[in-house]
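The passage that follows is intended for readers who have already worked through the single-chain material. We present the inputs for a multi-component assembly, then the predicted structure in tokenized form, and finally a short commentary. You are encouraged to pause after the input and sketch how you expect the pieces to fit together before reading on.
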Amino acid sequence: MGMRRLPRSFYDRDTVQVAQDLLGMHLVHVVAGVERVGRIVEVEAYLGPHDLAAHSARGLTPRTKIMFGPPGHLYVYFIYGMHWCANVVTQAEGTASAVLLRALEPVKNVEGRTNGPALLCKAMGIDGRQNGHDLLGEELFVRHPGGPTSPVRVVRRPRIGVDYAGHHWARRLLRFYIRGNSFVSRP
DNA sequence: CTCCGGATTCGT
DNA sequence: CGAATCCGGAGT
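Having made your guess, compare it with the prediction:
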């Protein structure tokens, strides 16, 4: 049925707003006909080429082209020779902004740890094959959990592992997580 | 072409 | 705190 799937317009908004609104939403990946579902509990916003912590700060390259593309697509990158990390592309084409998915709370058919950007990709079956995937498709998307939802309190912190970006960008409060959630990578 | 370092994770 | 492990991006 695909009900409750977030529309393109959800992603085509201010990146900080999208990041916070993603908290509590369900990430869904259909693998071999089985729906894996995780509740998004921690994210980070990367604001575009002017954000020195963002990959797009290096300009349009083969790797970052998805970030420069239209909103509502998945940007997946390979890091440290062994890990995959996934982002949701936000705002208009050319803006090169995205939201890094840092932790999930397992909801359905999720095996293994999900409290870290590379761990969640492994558990959800996300790797380079999903780079550029349209989140309005049938196999990989984000949807509202539906039913009664308890309000979440959002904690704002500096992003993790971006000290190379300089004081200004390293100190910005662009990491968001659900207060008290036990699946957050680093409370 | 070579070289450097990383939006991480795990073990010591 | 350091190793693992390899590709993207920058420089020659």
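Commentary: Strands of chain A lie at 26-31, 34-46, 74-79, 83-90, 97-108, 140-143, 154-157, 175-178. The first strand of chain A starts at residue 26 and ends at 31. How closely did your sketch match?
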